[in-house]
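Hi team,

Below is the intake form for Phosphoribosylaminoimidazole-succinocarboxamide synthase from Streptomyces prasinosporus. Please confirm the fields before the structure is written into the shared record.

FORM ID: S-0412
PROTEIN: Phosphoribosylaminoimidazole-succinocarboxamide synthase
ORGANISM: Streptomyces prasinosporus
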Amino acid sequence: MSGFVDKPEPIQVPGLVHLHTGKVRELYRNEAGDLVMVASDRISAYDWVLPTEIPDKGRVLTQLSLWWFDQLADLLPNHVLSTDLPEGAPADWAGRTLVCKSLNMVPVECVARGYLTGSGLAEYNETRTVCGLALPHGLVDGSELPAPIFTPATKAAVGEHDENVSYEEVARQVGAETAAQLRQATLAAYSRARDIARDRGIILADTKFEFGYDGDSLVIADEVLTPDSSRFWPAEQWEPGRAQPSYDKQFVRDWLTSGESGWDRKSEQPPPPLPQQVVDATRAKYVEAYERLTGVTWS
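The structure came back. Fields below:
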């Protein structure tokens, strides 16, 4: 059992039809048929959306995505039409709302990995492969790969795991031409972002993108290159052979699995609320990632 500890009631706004409550985002459609995406301050871990929010998280995710969309603009079009607040929307939607083009979404999580960790490491330790791709012997947690690899996953419902799949399986599901486009776009976007992050003292270990089609044009959608969709590591602390310090929700994961939380991850009981020090430390990590990457002071 997993999902939301306390599923929120979506805010109703005149002229907007609520479509979906995701782990972090609320999705609406406006009268013009465009999508309105609102990033909340919710945080998830171990397939649970937690009862405690992280202040400013939704704004950080949205503003960082917008910055990255600009960095990738010559490589890929994106789905953003406007950052203006819809009429009648609550004031606290400011800075975390995007009006987006409605796309024909491809049902694949497009993951690029430049370093070995997470589910990729677990698979490598068993088979010396990731998503069917053979890798050299002797790699450890945090090893840089010889070249970035495309390791797609199927998109899961809230409370379920995305499942890594082979490139051949993606080609079977969406067609060989689309699969080739997804792989090329994913690796191009990852390589650009990796180089930008490296210049700012951050390692982009891996990241996931979502794509859709606007007619025949492949468009990058959802969020991009945020601490929720990516593993960012401080370059000065990188040391293969151990878990790396990370700009993400590691404080949350560590506390939940500690004796202090009193929560058993294997039970069906939902996780407890987060203590204030974990909330503050997690918020600080999100803000630090934003500031280091963009060079802009968060306000």
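SUMMARY LINE: The first strand starts at residue 3 and ends at 4.

Thanks, M.
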